[in-house]
Specification:
single chain; mainly alpha; 3 helices; rod-shaped
C-alpha cells in the first residue's frame, strides 16, 4: 500500500475524531442524561473527553494534510 493511501486513511480517522463535536452527536450526548449532562459527573467527563478527542482530531487532520502535501510536492520534483 502506498504512503499516500496510508496518509489518507489517517486523515479519514482524524476527520472522524474531529466530527465528535458535530451537533447531532452533541444532542445525543445531551439526551443520554435525564436532566442534562451537567447533573452527572460521568456526563461532564464524557463531554470533556469528546472535546479533547475532537481537538486532537483537528490537530491530526491538519498535520496529516500538511505531510501529504509536502510528500506530493517532493514526489513530483524527482
Amino acid at each position: 500500500m502506498g504512503k499516500n493511501v496510508k496518509l489518507l486513511y489517517c486523515m479519514l480517522g482524524s476527520a472522524i475524531l474531529a466530527l465528535l463535536n458535530n451537533p447531532i452527536l452533541s444532542y445525543a450526548k445531551l439526551g443520554m442524561f435525564e436532566g442534562g449532562y451537567g447533573n452527572s459527573r460521568f456526563g461532564v467527563f464524557l463531554v470533556l473527553i469528546t472535546n479533547i478527542f475532537s481537538l486532537a482530531g483537528f490537530i491530526l487532520l491538519i498535520l496529516f494534510s500538511i505531510i501529504l502535501i509536502i510528500k506530493n510536492i517532493n514526489f513530483k520534483e524527482k
